[in-house]
Each structure stands twice: as structure tokens, then as C-alpha cells.
Amino acid sequence: MTTALLIAIGVVVLLIVICISIYNGLVGRRNEAKNAWSQIDVQLKRRYDLIPNLVETVKGYMKHERETLDAVVRARQQCVDASKAGNIGELARAEGALSGSLRGLFAVSEAYPDLKSNQNMLQLQEELTSTENRVGFARQAYNDAVMRLNNAIEQFPNSIIAGMGNFKQLEFFQVESAEEKKAVKVSF
Predict the structure, then answer these.
(1) Does pTM top 0.90 for this prediction?
(2) I need a labelling partner for 164 at 20 to 30 A (CA). Which of 25, 61, 77, 143 fits?
(3) Is residue 111 helix, strand or coil?
(4) Does 172 have pLDDT greater than 80?
């Protein structure tokens, strides 16, 4: 074998190793983003599971506030449906609506002193606050993973391998309206 042939084979092998490395890196980043999304899903499920308990606790005290309770239940169901569909934009909108309806529920509950001091309500308040923090951290981790994946897909020479491997950029989890960006105020 001639030296030129050995060099050519070495270059081809090196290019193959580089392509495999890039492809595996993209797969790893895509899986990281999927894992981060599943963490959001876990925290949202926890939140959705808390809401019926909250509504049941409040229901006995707020007999005249049926609209507010129904709005929370409807918003929760929209979130569950959007989560199952896997549409990030739709889920972000549904989450905003849920946060707004919870804000309304907590605002109305201020008029009920017995409810404000109810032990179940205080415990649910603490769990919901903790869950809201977990949801926020999970969203941040997801968006960080999406950014890393999207950057890797766009950078050269990764973009060539990403195109051949049919890698798609993922959508960030974003809140769209200013009202939705306000934190849920939980005060009793």
C-alpha cells in the first residue's frame, strides 16, 4: 500500500468517527430535552393532582362562588389535555389560564376567614407553592436542554449531520401574555 492510500483511508476513517460522534451528541441532547420535558410533566401532574383537593377543600366554604371553582376545574382539564397532546405552545397557554383561575380562586378565598385558617387549606397552599417552584425549575431545565439541542443542530458541521439525521429544533416553553407571566399569589 502506498502512503497516499493510507492517508486517504485514515482521513475517511477520521471523518466517519467525527460524523458518528456528532450524531451521538445530537441524540444525547435530544434525549436530554425529552427527559427535561418529562420532568415538567411530572411536576404538572403533581400540580393537577393537588387542584381537585384544593377545590374540594374550598367548595364547602364558597357555596356562592361556583363560577370560580368551575373555572379552576375547566382550566385544569385543559392543561391535562394539552399535556397529553404534547403541544408545548398549547400547554403554555393552558398553564397561563390555569394560573389565572387559581389567582381568582385565591383572591375570592380572602373573603372567607374560616377558610383562610383551615388546616387542609394551609397544607394545600404550602404544597401548591412548593409545586409551583418545582414547575418553574423544571421549565427552566427544559428550556436549557432545548437551547443546547437547538444550538447543536444549527452549528456547523453538526447542521449537516442533523439534516441527514432528521433532527428538528424543539420549541421553548414560553408564557405568551403579560398576565400569564405574573406569579400565582397564594395568600391566606
Answers:
(1) no
(2) 143
(3) coil
(4) yes
